[in-house]
Amino acid sequence: MFSTLILFESFIFWNIFLPPFLFGIIWTLMLASFGTKLGLRRLYVNSLLNLFEYAGATKDRGGSFYLEDDDSDDEDYIDILKKEYKKNGGEHMDGNLMRKIERKHTRHNVISRKDNLLMVPSNPDLKSLDENNSVDNETNGEISVTTKVINNRVVSVATFKREFELGDVLDYLKTGIACIIEDEVTQRFVQAELKTWNLMTRTNKSFVFINWRITCIWIFGCWVRYFLLFPARLVVLLLGISLLVGSCLGLTWVPHPELRRWLYEKISLTTFRCLSRCFSAQIDFHNVENRPLCDGICVANHTSPIDVLILSTDRPYSLVGQTHGGLMGLIQRSLSLGASHIWFQRSEVNDRAAVSRRLREHVEDPDKLPILIFPEGTCINNTSVMQFKKGSMEVGGVIYPAAIKYDARFGDAFWNSSRFSMVQYILMMMTSWALVVDVWYLPPMRIGEGENAINFANRVKHEIAKKGGLVDLLWDGNLKRQRVKSEWKKAQQQRFSNRINTNITINENTWKHL
Question: Which of 111, 224, 240, 371 could make an SS bond with 275 (beta carbons 3.0 to 4.6 A apart)?
Answer without folding.
Answer: 240
